[in-house]
Task: structure prediction
Amino acid sequence: MNTFVTQLKREYWENRGGFFRAPMVVIGVVVLITIMGLTVGQFSVGSHIQMMGVPLTKAINSMPADKLQKVAEGINLGLAGMSMLVQFALGIVLFFYLIGCLFDERKDRSVLFWKSMPVSDVQTVLTKIVAATLLAPAIAWAAGILLHLLMLAVIGGFFWINDVSPMKLLWGPAEPLKLWGVMLAGIPVNAIWALPSIGWLMLVSSWARGKPFLWAVFVPVIAGILLTWFDALSSLSIPDTWYWKEVFARGLFSIFPWTFDASGAFRFGLEFSKDSTPSDVVSLKSLWMVLTMMKTWLGAAAGIAMIAGAVYFRRYRELSD
Amino acid sequence: MSKVIEARGLRKRYGKTEAVKGVDLSIEAGKIVGLIGPNGAGKTSVLKAMLGLTDFDGELTILGRNPHTERHALMQDVCFIADVAVLPRWIRVREAIEYVEGVHPRFSRAKCEAFLAKTQLKPEMRVREMSKGMIVQLHLALVMAIDAKLLVLDEPTLGLDVLYRKDFYQTLLNDYFDHEKTIVVTTHQVEEIEHILTDVLFIKDGVISLSATMEELGSRFTEVMVPANQREAALALKPLDERSVFGKSILLYDGVPREQLDALGETRTPGLADIFVATMKGTYQ
Result:
């Protein structure tokens, strides 16, 4: 247990920049832009903000219940969107973390130091997976909460200056607790969903003698192009769209959290449409959907097989001098 | 006495070239063994096989274990510095100590800090900010604070100045070594380790060309300085090597009784470096 904790700490020390500073930078930028926007708004429009020709204060105070309901939906959508910003940054960090995690140590030869310690290769690889699926997401989760609190405070303050009750318009209708709960529940589900990507990136990281990024990206791209050609040239119908969606996209990019949407389809990046808004994606319903899909588990099995491959290479790959 | 290292017919091939061509070894506890050979002789391959960093053919056991399949268990009792400057560049002194303390049951923080107190290293320093010598100092402090049964050092003092090198070997002998430990060391600075070794192994072209204790070495090898008129007689005794200094020949013999050589000229026990050079002649030709 002590070994595991120490190994995890070591991952954090090495990747403090990605695991901790990156989400903090995202928060800083979002809050700063908001403050700047509100300041400009305050000076140029001042307290003359109106809603359908009525001064805002008055409009809010006489707002009917169904309108307030809409406001609440808007606020919760905004909160979920803010979480997604942090999650997207987390995805980028994890992608590069996994590509480098078993390659960099061979490149700078520090693997000779790590291997002089009584830690097995399985332990090492598992620690890195835990760092990518629990440690970094937990930090990003906390960062998301911090972002929500700061934004609620900043915007609430702006309302308050303008004589609008933040309690009525913002803090009351907002439901951050529910969102935080779902985000937390999403961590293990995302981990399962991301297993193929984790496996592939770690496999390349432990295997490549150089340029792991190019290997990780171009092998699947070329495989896909070949499949598409076959498809076009022969009567054999290999479903290449299926490949791009289920193998290519999931294998490379499922490390981006919440990239499944409510309908269970994979979406590259975070594309939102009318039926899959951030608050639809970030829901217990969509998490449950992911867990009930066969392909989630098939992909996870493929991911575990590739992780076993990564362990093999970490153990037996010889360092070229 | 239990065997710490036992090898029989150890071979290692890289593609078409065979780097190690059947090495037999048997090293007991309480020895300091110098593994000495020219570049490309297979030293590093033998060490890597011993440390479980590479696979091999033939038999090899370290402390009764197969290093290739049981590396992590073996590392409880074996420590090594496989190369200089392999500490990760991002790590801080404080973090390196905490890491080794966390994963190694035989590490003593107090010992490590005592070693570090003699250096310029500060807890917050990162490896990337250190000079090459400082990195080696940190690595050695970490490794010497581990109470291991076998310590393997591959060129441990490369990049260190002569003052620190002397100090290092002295510390190794006085504060680290005892009769239950075994040290295997390779270095090109043969003169500097000569006085601490108990045994020596010469490796040439992938085979052990000489295996002896230091006492045996002293009784086997003799160097004679012979005047020109005695040279013919001296050559008849088949010296290993001949070099001339100021018109006199210095000849090195293996296994010729010293009494016999006394008649030819002034005899002395040659240094390890001289024996090494003599036995390795022709390596680069």
